[in-house]
Amino acid sequence: PHLGIPDLGLHGTFPNPMSPPSGCAFHPRCPSCMAVCKENYPIAGRMEGGTVRCHLRDTSKTLELMPS
User: Mean pLDDT of all residues in the chain?
Assistant: First the structure.
């Protein structure tokens, strides 16, 4: 059934919470994964009325950085 949540293309298995992947937790199943995603956890920022943590976003132009 459709719950009104968009399909983000994150298919595959969920990471083990006892042994999460390095870097971004979504990188093993993200179709836009880059090398930096596997190494560094993304910094939080505000974008379009919400919060995002993604290396795909250009934080210098589109995000208002949030304190850690």
Answer: 77
